[in-house]
Amino acid sequence: KSQELNISNTLRFDESLDREVKSIFWIKNDLISAISKDELILNYQPIYDVIRKRLIGAEALVRWKHKEKGIIPPLEFIPVAEETGLIHSIGKWVLFNACKQNKRWQDLGYEPIYISVNVSALQMEEPGFIQFVKQTLKESRLEPKYLQLEITETVSSKDYRVIEKTVKELTSLGISFAIDDFGTGYSSLEELHNLNINNIKMDKMFIDNLEHKGKEEIAKTIISLAEGLSVNLIAEGVETKEQLEFLVKNKCTIAQGYLFSRPVETYKIEELLKKTRNNHKDL
Ligand code: C2E
Ligand code: MG
Ligand code: MG
Ligand code: MG
């Protein structure tokens, strides 16, 4: 009896757990209808070639515009979507709309850029994924070379074969792949090498606090790793001029981050594209 009391007391007073359980509960409930209610939106974060000072790409980042709760960031609902299987329909919505948007910019006459879309490993394992990507390109009329898919490094050995096949087949169509958050996951370099992925996105943590002992060496090691493997390296989360100077000095020349721009709405990217067209020094 006293034990029961203890447990319920512990639970009652663990407010953070309580809050978490409640929030997962409403997220699950409301997320089911988020697509049909038109509540998902895409923001785009510019990706620059910092040497040529050109906008070369944009990463599509999903947000949920909840009727009562306001804008909900992806880290709060993507994990729930993965857990409930809703990631498949959300992922399809994101991919299709990102491709359509990129084609629309091209149709407006702007210099083509690539669109980079985050894809959960669960999506890549789904049997219909390859077919869906093909269908998306066909319907959006976007050329495959303007699509990049970002996958996180955490690929367990169980899924590895499926992922390998998917990457191979989609690469042969002309789509490119990037390893997202590189250096934070568990995948071995050997697996990475076997997947033949041509782009690595260096996680923000590697360029944070570069003044701390050893941090520059780690970042430099990742840069030379990319160079040695002949893959493109994109620096994520560049916030300061000092970080940018460090990157340029060490020959990492593709970057995105708040220093250039936060993820923005469609029309803002269009303004940047306009600038690129009128004036090639757009940084
Ligand atoms: P990610 O793919 O690594 O995206 C980069 C995240 O870093 C974005 O957060 C972006 O807003 C943020 N960021 C960019 N530059 C800076 C900077 O200079 N400083 C700081 N502090 N942050 C910066 P966001 O939009 O909240 O997305 C978080 C994560 O959610 C993404 O990380 C990605 O893993 C996931 N995600 C977003 N959209 C999708 C999607 O459509 N599908 C899937 N499966 N995952 C998504
Ligand atoms: Mg990403
Ligand atoms: Mg990332
Ligand atoms: Mg990340």
From TrEMBL:
Domain (EAL) ranges:
24-277
- Give the highest taxon in the source lineage: Bacteria
- Entire protein: shown range: 278 to 560 of 560
Q: What is this protein called?
A: EAL domain-containing protein
